[in-house]
């Protein structure tokens, strides 16, 4: 465009392209000192006739460059630039409308940007189709746009396609397609699926755990349950324990206390301390089995001896209150101390109370401090009464 002087002269003579280039020179500090206010001024002058200028001005209003942030003004300019064919402006307008809770308008702008080939917009429009956000739900259309986006390198779209094909959410379940898209995204889930297909119980369970923790819908939960069951049926103890929880809480399947007890027992007999504790709870509550406090205490003791802190605390309470056993203060104290050593804040607090009652203030403060550090309210209040700085001791 020549020198800044000639560019300015052209801009002042109503050359809209010159206005745009002059604004860009100020925005970048090219041949002039960087000046956002001047950049915005010239972009706004050019905006009615120059789509790029309208878009750049919108971004400045959005980000508060050269002016106070003003989303309303930004949206107006994004819409202007969108009407002149700027795909990024359509995407930005869609994002603002979505944030404002106007999914129909958002979907329209995302579609416009998607049709222009913008990968991020293709993802957003695909997700709108998948969820029926602002438009009629259409899983086939969702796959089309997510595939376009993923094929342009959008990792989030590739991960979404992998999840859909793995769980059969909106598409026919196809683990080969799932592997393909997870691999495209560079996700370790691709190898996990392949290894689970070859019969690796550990990988099946790991994959089940990932799906369960990140589940977004019932299909995800159902697939997590199925993989967990497959791993459990192959004798993998951690999967059996997890399957018991799924049956107990109805996660990915219907609630079934009898099945929960069955799988907790399987895992417990194979050494799972957590399953032992869960099984004890089932006996205590009479869920899936006749209520049996003696059995509850038996499994709690096994769990505690295997290092389950919650079970040790439960035993402390049982012997203190005579729940399923004869009250026994010394045994109660022993189990609370065991739980305290296993880092149960409830046990630490109870042990501290007993040490205080026995006159051993050093041990009382030691365990009360540990409980307080973990956020036990009673311990914090007790320490405050004794010494405001006690929490930092021991």
From TrEMBL:
It comes from Methanomassiliicoccus intestinalis (strain Issoire-Mx1). InterPro entries: Sel1-like, Sel1_AlgK, TPR-like_helical_dom_sf. This is Sel1 domain-containing protein. PANTHER family: ERAD-ASSOCIATED E3 UBIQUITIN-PROTEIN LIGASE COMPONENT HRD3, SEL-1-LIKE PROTEIN. Pfam families: Sel1.
